[in-house]
């Protein structure tokens, strides 16, 4: 069992636009390309954050997309009453990872998102594959896949870093497992997180 | 003559760390991989922003890396007195594009950076190839390649966007021209900007 993502990101790093609309709505993606059917073919369970679940639920109730597969929602709140019986709330990434390991299903786990859920599962050491489809579009605003701090250049800070004698420019590297370019210019990158 | 970038970016979109140190210092890059020698082989002129020039100048003066090639610096300020005679200041992206078109050199132009210079040349319609090497590292902070606005999810904003009947989820798409994976897990993506 592997916990895997298949998430689309704009070239400038956003998974949604400023309204929360997934970035794939800006492309030709209709659920049949970008390696998505191949990815889903071996998915036996779904995990997602509470925000993603509550955002998606209304639409999903008109045609529940996950069949009998268990769906784990990372949330500190109670699930909406209309959630199907296959949906389970878990309180932490650690609990999510443990529950997934103990659950009765075949295949891998789709970690749907959002970014907070992916970050917390990654930090807890549970993410096996970070699969990202980089779409050839620049959005300019939205929800970033990676929460980061943008900094402007500072000559002083840079000079100080150059003077430092003990610079440790080391970060744990991801491992690029595979990659594929699609006809629409999207680029599928699949990484194993460090450690 | 094409204006081209070959710039490294972390997986989370930063071209430098928080000190302004280029992200390639976090990798094994030593100037001989990542397609860089092949890229530079046909470069006849260099263009960069004023911040990049002033940041790099001290180091470059100990071994000027550009030979006799003309170097155009996009800046509203006077050049430092120690700048070599091959360095020319230009005041706008439009002027830069015009000067490059009229200059006497063979081959393409390396648009070195930084992000502001790339953005302004792109906005002025002058960028022919956006070449980005995506390094398999997450930095968490630094200077982003694309200036963007990070937004948190809002149920209200999302609901409003779903209710809208005239959604125009269209952005000009980049064209993925070519891509190459390198042994260290870096991924070279080369795009033509829209339009």
SS element count, helices of chain A = 5
Globally, the shape of chain A reads globular
Low-pLDDT windows of residues of chain A: none
Strand content of chain A: 15-25%
Return the average pLDDT of chain A rounded to an integer: 92
Which oligomerization state do the chains in this entry correspond to? homodimer
- Give the biggest sheet of chain A: 5 strands, parallel
Number of strands of chain A: 11
Secondary-structure element sequence of chain A?
A: EEHEHEEHEHEEEHEE
State the share of residues found in helices of chain A, binned by percent: 10-25%
- Give the N-terminus to C-terminus distance of chain A in angstroms: 18 Å
Spatial arrangement of strands, main beta sheet of chain A? 1-6-3-4-5
Report Rg of chain A: 18 Å
Report on the structure:
- 2 copies of one chain form a homodimer.
- The longest helix of chain A is centred in the first third of the chain and has 12 residues, at 50-61.
- The two termini of chain A are 18 Å apart.
- Chain A has helices spanning 36-41, 50-61, 93-102, 115-123, 155-163; strands at residues 3-4, 7-10, 43-49, 71-74, 87-90, 108-111, 130-135, 141-142, 149-150, 175-181, 187-192.
- Chain A has 195 residues and is an alpha/beta fold.
- Chains A and B meet through helix 2, strand 8, strand 9, helix 5 and strand 10 of A and helix 2, strand 8, strand 9, helix 5 and strand 10 of B.
- Strand 9 of chain A pairs parallel with strand 8 (141-142) of chain B.
């Amino acid at each position: 069992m592997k916990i895997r993502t298949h998430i689309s990101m704009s070239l400038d790093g956003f998974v949604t636009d400023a309204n929360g609309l997934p970035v794939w709505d800006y492309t030709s993606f209709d659920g049949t390309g970008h390696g998505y059917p191949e990815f889903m073919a071996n998915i036996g369970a779904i995990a997602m954050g509470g925000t993603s679940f509550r955002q998606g639920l209304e639409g999903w109730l008109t045609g529940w997309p996950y069949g009998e597969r268990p769906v784990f929602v990372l949330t500190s709140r109670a699930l909406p009453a209309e959630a199907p019986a296959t949906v389970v709330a878990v309180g932490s990434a650690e609990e999510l990872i443990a529950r997934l390991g103990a659950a009765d299903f075949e295949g891998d786990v789709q970690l749907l998102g959002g970014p907070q859920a992916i970050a917390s599962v990654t930090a807890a050491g549970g993410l096996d594959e970070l699969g990202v489809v980089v779409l050839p579009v620049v959005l300019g605003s939205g929800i970033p896949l990676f929460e980061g701090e943008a900094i402007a250049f500072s000559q002083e800070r840079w000079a100080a870093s150059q003077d430092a004698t003990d610079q440790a420019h080391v970060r744990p590297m991801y491992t690029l497992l595979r990659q594929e370019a699609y006809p629409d210019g999207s680029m599928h990158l699949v990484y194993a997180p460090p450690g």
